Amino acid sequence: MNQPQPGTVLSLSSFLSCGSAMSTQKFREAPQYYNSPDCPVITDDQDGLICSDQAVHVAMTLDQTYIRGSMAAILSVLQHSSCPQNIFFHFVISSTRSNASDLRATMGASFPYLKFDLYPFDDSAVAGLISTSIRSALDCPLNYARSYLANLLPLCVSRVVYLDSDVVVVDDIASLYDVQLAEEKVLAAPEYCNANFTAYFTPTFWSNPSLSMTFAERRACYFNTGVMVIDLNRWRAGDYTRRIEEWMELQKRMRIYELGSLPPFLLVFAGNIVPVDHRWNQHGLGGDNFRGLCRNLHPGPVSLLHWSGKGKPWARLDANRPCPLDALWAPYDLLQTPFSLDS
Questions:
Q1: Does the residue 230 lie in any domain?
Q2: Closest by alpha carbon to 142, among 127, 131, 155?
Q3: What is the model's pLDDT at position 260?
Q4: Are 274 and 188 in contact (CB under 8 A)?
Q5: Whether 179 contacts 188, CB under 8 Å
Q6: Do the beta carbons of residue 290 and residue 311 sit within 8 Å?
Q7: Using CA atoms, how far apart are residues 30 and 331, in angstroms rounded to an integer?
Q8: Which pTM does this prediction carry?
Q9: Is residue 289 part of a domain?
Q10: Helix (H), strand (E) at residue 189
Q11: Which end of the chain is more exposed for a tag (fewer CB within 10 A), N or C?
Q12: Mean residue pLDDT across the chain
């Protein structure tokens, strides 16, 4: 296991911001959604679905801090899917900070018919690689679990859509899942070539020719890692987890970026992904990483809303200071409030 180095280990406050295993939140039961007649028929038992190449595999992290957002995201995926019974959810949880039985019970109570499994993620495997960033929430070990999906999920799962917990899907997830990954590409995501790519790395990085030349042979564009389609077989074959870890190890020695888990993905994949229509990640609705100010939608159609940034819709609604777009998240909120009446 990699040992933390002086001056770069996560602070106690950073770990406290990662949530705990206890929660008093209660959630309502979601409606059950059924396949349309033209959906492929997959074996009813869980093992049949988990390995089926006709299923849609969705991976998310799951913890008590963001579980309210996760519940809304799951509901939105099911509600807008034409084949909701053919979706299998893969939930990655902290092996040390999460109670698997509690999370399984919470999922089962709100989604009795959901096909899912839980995958414990060893925090210590990555904690020694994490450098502090501009926002403590970005330093949680579970935030880095997306780099280990190929190791955590069953080998029979060859493709997965990874979603952050602060999204709402308003289109059929199968349309995203089925994107063509041509030319041996490993990853697909909306990319944004108008963004200032240089801002994601420090002057130390750009002033070092051996580092800045990393992007010399590719047109590197920003993409958000909260929504990705990943070919897990190609990821495994290319040992991409190790490639990401190597950049994280360098970061601990010479500080080449300020954000959390995003820059290593950019270093490995930027300029070498399959671009997806921007409608699949209307990101930044949580504002910037410092103040979380309100933002408007980007121009164009919307298939997925993403409250990336500091401001989360459930927190702003609870504080009675919502942004206008938080009203689009609220209908998917399954939180059972003390004053709600059961129908």
A1: yes
A2: 127
A3: 79
A4: yes
A5: yes
A6: no
A7: 12
A8: 0.90
A9: no
A10: strand 187-189
A11: C
A12: 88
